[in-house]
Amino acid sequence: MQLPLAAFLEQVLATAQAGLTYSKDPFDIARFEALRAATVALIASQSELAPEAIGDWIALDSGYPTPKLDVRAFIQNDAGHLLLVQERCDGLWTLPGGWCDIGDSPAGAVVREVVEETGLACRAVQLLALFDKLKHPHPPQLPHAHKAFFLCEVTGGALLTETNETQGAAYFPIDDLPPLSRHRVVASQLRTLHAHLREGRRDTLFD
């Protein structure tokens, strides 16, 4: 799907979900259910996703629709190289991280993800950026997400080359990045964050 179409369809799904949450009239409920079903069919026709898979994703959320929160750890070694992990699902590279779980704080979630994906213990020391995924050059993808990037410092552990979720982990120079998993992170974000740190800034980037 092209980005404008994906953003439009996501808005339609959000409207249907809000309608199903607050509507009491059975005829309105039926209309919102039909709107959602038609949108799912259109998404399936424009992507490689099966309607059942899209329906399963929609079923995970209820109530008033809000973006999900994805957290990513920005970790550098003494040479200033950036820690990336290689995803099993696509063989591409990204910052360690993932979705916040229920009960997680954003900082707690990023620390947990780093341990699970790299074997390293760390602490989150600075929120570098809070970005809206739709405002960056990610490929179109549901659901709508906000992405929190934390500067993290390694406190222990040992770097693993393989975990249940990843098939590689290594440090890379910012000017020699491997092929990135662009659903998760894009090169422009990494370069922006790297420059932000190099300049010694303490403010948080957003949008």
Automatic annotation (TrEMBL):
InterPro entries: NUDIX_hydrolase-like_dom_sf, NUDIX_hydrolase_dom, UDP-X_N
Pfam families named in the record: NUDIX (PF00293), Nudix_N (PF12535)
TM helices/strands, residue ranges: none
PROSITE patterns in alphabetical order: NUDIX
Coiled-coil residue spans: none
A GO molecular function held by the record: hydrolase activity
Keywords noted in UniProt: Hydrolase
Cofactor(s) the protein requires to work: Mg(2+)
Residue stretches making up the Nudix hydrolase domain: 66-194
Record keyword RNA-binding present: no
PANTHER family: ADP-RIBOSE PYROPHOSPHATASE YJHB-RELATED, GDP-MANNOSE MANNOSYL HYDROLASE
Protein name listed in UniProt: NUDIX hydrolase
UniProt source species: Aeromonas sanarellii
Origin organism lineage: Bacteria, Pseudomonadati, Pseudomonadota, Gammaproteobacteria, Aeromonadales
